[in-house]
Write a structure and sequence with these properties.
Order of helices and strands: HEHHEHEHEHEHH
Number of helices: 8
CATH superfamily: Metal-dependent hydrolases
Distance between the termini: 25 Å
Strand order of the largest sheet: 1-2-3-4-5
CATH architecture: Alpha-Beta Barrel
Length: 194
């Protein structure tokens, strides 16, 4: 493991590691063992801090409880929650689970969130359909721990680059200039040390 991390550290632009932890439950009929429950994996994630890396946390809402345990075990490691917490289902119960999970993760100061990927779960999205997810995330984590991401080229199947950024701009139109600057570039520069 350390040999691999050492090799990654040799690339000047590498800032963190992302492992798609949600993949273990993509197909409920054929679940794979979850790394979130793997004691060896959970123990070894501390090595990321040693090499100066953050961890990009990609989980579904139903995994956020386990993710909280991981984050708590590694309070000195920066976690970046991907794709707005992946609200993949939009029924009432699922949305409440997403909100609860987001609140739980937001309690940890070492968790930031990338607001992105909403088109994956709403291929016909509009400003009105993504607005609640964006505003709730900003309210829950605070402007200082949120940043916008495009998720292109994947989201290019549902929209175009200009439409996405125009929507994010309109949704955050009531925020101050400094808050918008933080969301659209400043926080990403700081969090990813660009």
């Amino acid at each position: 493991m350390e040999v691999i991390l050492e090799a990654h550290r040799g690339y000047l632009n590498v800032r963190g590691i992302r492992q798609m932890l949600h993949e273990s439950i993509v197909d409920p009929d054929k679940p794979r063992p979850s790394l979130l429950k793997n004691s060896v994996w959970r123990k070894n994630i501390h090595l990321l801090k040693k090499y100066g890396f953050s961890f990009d946390l990609q989980v579904y809402p139903q995994q956020m409880g386990q993710a909280c345990k991981l984050v708590k075990e590694h309070e000195n490691l920066l976690f970046i929650l991907y794709h707005t917490g992946q609200p993949s289902r939009h029924d009432k119960e699922s949305l409440q689970n997403w909100r609860t999970g987001m609140q739980s993760l937001a309690r940890f100061p070492n968790v930031c969130v990338k607001i992105s990927g909403l088109g994956m779960f709403d291929r016909n999205w509009t400003i009105d359909t993504i607005r609640p997810f964006i505003l709730y995330t900003i309210k829950t984590f605070g402007v200082e721990r949120c940043m916008f991401g495009s998720n292109f080229p994947v989201d290019g199947m549902m929209s175009n680059y200009s439409r996405l950024w125009s929507a994010c701009s309109e949704i955050t139109g009531d925020l101050s200039h400094n808050e918008r600057h933080a969301l659209f570039c400043g926080n990403a520069e700081r969090i990813y040390r660009i």
